[in-house]
């Protein structure tokens, strides 16, 4: 247990007004909540004391929220920052918080000399630690946004674990409030350093010439995490691993940065080649492509296996963004590498993206040929996951051709290909497809349960592309019920989400959207249609999801009044 003196250190003064956010800066949606926090109140009070007339308004609210969040809600640090308002604009203070130990060197007039600056408090708190605690504390600074016990243990030599186990040392750091412990519902317990303490720890590592070594160990650990995730994402544990990767996304970015900086392009390629399914599901298309582009440009000597994975990642992300030139180039190179090594699974995967790209370009017969060859190779490779995904792409082709009965047949084959071991995303697409098959065949009552179940799967996964399609399908349900205003609101929300993540509209969606928009515009008139579309465009994602859920949760009445027949979905 920590002594009372130890609790007077830096962390003994924190957490009273901690915001709980652990991203570099607050999103716009988070700012209103931050405005209600005690840390913001303290910042404004202290700033107005040194600069009379200072107040919180729309011109400075984001900067103030950033300052309070980046300083972890530390009362001392916020007071030091507020003292600078007399000479520096809050926007300048917010921008320079990476150098906070030098920036916040002003004086408060507290009773203890050690509380005069943020650095003095950090130095004093650090001085209370024993050698094992100092070593672990310093090492933990390389983590960005949090870590697990396993991750912490990976940074400490095995010979030292037996004499002073990392779990025990970490527990003492938590007890002294130098490390924050958090229970995550899906991924279990995680830990993190407050941002100010992390910067202090990085300075310590730098002063001991250990920073690069620790970052290499960090990158090595997250290579293992990424490659394990690549396998786990193909099965029923997909949701758990998506949550884990989301929590560790900043760590994985850091691992990629380290690998690229030291010229270890093989490690960078293996990480990126493992992460692209996560980037796809959570809508990080542009970021993923930036990493992959750098790796392919600079990593000329990476292994064929790693290069094939990266090329497949480039194809997957590029095709969704409607970039056929990059998709075809990446796929053809991946096909060549796969044929050369006899890798039937990679060949099947690349052919799927070639087929998908052909659909975007309107070459449906060519797409059919690619997808049939993909299915043959998946079966030869005895890869049930790739087999089920071949059916997903075939479903997409059937939708492009408005073959809704075939859509349902292929969806059933997809669901049976992998059985209970199928990944939830694949199940989500196949389930939505069953709903679409019924819906556009006119079987509206039978369609709703499938549409609702598919939508719920993508909501649990955080699959943004699937959610955008699900919201659009909910809009179709609204239209069929005669609620044209809500239909247009949901259409606007679906399109806003799709464009926000950078996903190109698929040909079948363009057709559906054009048909629905023309009918709704005729019914409402141009002005009202535009107002409702804008309302949907500005709807927060959480509200759009809730509205879609409400629509899909409600059973469909098969007998509609005569005046609502015009809102029935078309099959052309």
Describe the protein in words.
The chain has helices spanning about 30-35, 40-50, 60-70, 75-85, 90-95, 100-105, 120-125, 130-140, 150-155, 160, 165-175, 195-205, 210-230, 240-245, 250-260, 265-280, 285-300, 305-320, 325-340, 345-360, 365-380, 385-400, 405-420, 425-440, 445-460, 465-480, 485-500, 505-525, 525-535, 540-555, and strands at about 180-185, 190. With about 575 residues, it is mostly helical. The chain has a two-stranded antiparallel ribbon. β1 and β2 (about 190) form a beta hairpin. The chain is globular, with a radius of gyration of 27 Å.
Summarize the structure.
This protein has 572 residues and is mainly α. Helices cover 68% and strands 2% of the residues.
What is the overall number of helices? 30
What is the total tally of β strands? 2
Q: Taking all residues together, what is the mean pLDDT?
A: 84
Low-confidence stretches: 1-35, 107-115, 158-162, 559-572
Q: Radius of gyration over alpha carbons?
A: 27 Å
How much of the residues is beta strand, in percent? under 5%
Strand order in the sheet with the most strands: 1-2
Query: Quick one: overall form?
Result: globular
Please outline the major beta sheet.
2 strands, antiparallel
């Amino acid at each position: 247990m920590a002594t009372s003196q130890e609790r007077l250190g830096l962390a003994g003064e924190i957490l009273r007004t901690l915001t709980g956010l652990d991203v570099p800066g607050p999103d716009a949606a988070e700012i209103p909540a931050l405005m209600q926090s005690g840390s913001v109140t303290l910042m404004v009070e202290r700033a107005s004391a040194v600069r009379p007339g200072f107040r919180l308004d729309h011109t400075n609210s984001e900067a103030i929220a950033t300052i309070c969040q980046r300083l972890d809600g530390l009362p001392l640090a916020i007071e030091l920052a507020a003292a600078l308002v007399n000479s520096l604009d809050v926007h300048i203070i917010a921008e320079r918080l990476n150098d906070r130990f030098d920036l916040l060197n002003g004086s408060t007039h507290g009773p203890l000399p050690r509380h005069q600056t943020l650095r003095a408090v950090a130095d004093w708190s650090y001085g209370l630690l024993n050698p094992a605690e100092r070593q672990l504390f310093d090492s933990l600074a390389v983590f960005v946004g949090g870590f697990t016990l396993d991750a912490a243990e990976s940074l400490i030599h095995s010979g030292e674990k037996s004499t002073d186990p990392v779990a025990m040392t970490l527990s003492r750091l938590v007890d002294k409030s130098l490390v924050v412990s958090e229970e995550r519902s899906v991924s279990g317990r995680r830990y993190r350093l407050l941002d100010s303490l992390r910067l202090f720890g990085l300075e310590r590592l730098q002063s001991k010439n250990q920073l690069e070594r620790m970052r290499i160990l960090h990158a090595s650990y997250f290579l293992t995490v990424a490659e394990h995730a690549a396998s786990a994402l193909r099965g029923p544990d997909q949701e758990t691993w998506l949550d884990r990767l989301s929590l560790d996304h900043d760590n994985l970015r850091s691992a990629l940065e380290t690998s690229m900086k030291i010229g270890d392009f093989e490690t960078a390629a293996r990480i990126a080649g493992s992460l692209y399914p996560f980037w796809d599901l959570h809508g990080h298309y542009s970021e993923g492509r930036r990493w992959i582009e750098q790796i392919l440009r600079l990593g000329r000597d990476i292994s064929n296996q790693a290069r094939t994975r990266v090329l497949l990642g480039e194809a997957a992300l590029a095709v969704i963004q409607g970039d056929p030139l990059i998709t075809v180039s990446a796929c053809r190179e991946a096909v060549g590498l796969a044929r050369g090594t006899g890798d039937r699974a990679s060949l099947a995967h690349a052919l799927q993206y070639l087929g998908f790209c052909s659909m975007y370009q309107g070459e449906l017969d060519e797409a059919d040929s690619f997808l049939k060859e993909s299915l043959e190779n998946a079966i030869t490779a005895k890869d049930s996951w790739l087999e089920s995904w071949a059916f997903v792409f075939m479903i997409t082709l059937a939708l492009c051709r408005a073959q809704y009965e075939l859509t349902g047949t292929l969806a059933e084959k997809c669901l049976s290909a992998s059985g209970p071991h199928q990944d939830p995303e694949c199940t989500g697409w196949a389930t939505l497809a069953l709903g679409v098959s019924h819906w556009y065949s006119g079987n509206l009552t039978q369609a709703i349960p499938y549409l609702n179940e598919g939508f719920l799967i993508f909501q649990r996964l955080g699959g943004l592309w699937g959610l955008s399609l699900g919201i659009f399908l909910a809009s179709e349900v609204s239209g069929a019920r005669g609620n044209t205003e809500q239909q247009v609101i949901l259409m606007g929300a679906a399109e806003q989400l799709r464009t926000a993540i950078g996903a190109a509209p698929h040909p079948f969606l363009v057709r559906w959207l054009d048909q629905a928009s023309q009918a709704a515009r005729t019914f409402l008139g141009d002005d009202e249609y535009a107002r409702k579309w804008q309302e949907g465009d500005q709807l927060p994602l959480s509200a759009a999801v809730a509205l879609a859920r409400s629509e899909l949760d409600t059973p469909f009445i098969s007998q509609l009044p005569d005046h609502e027949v015009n809102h029935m979905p078309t099959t052309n």
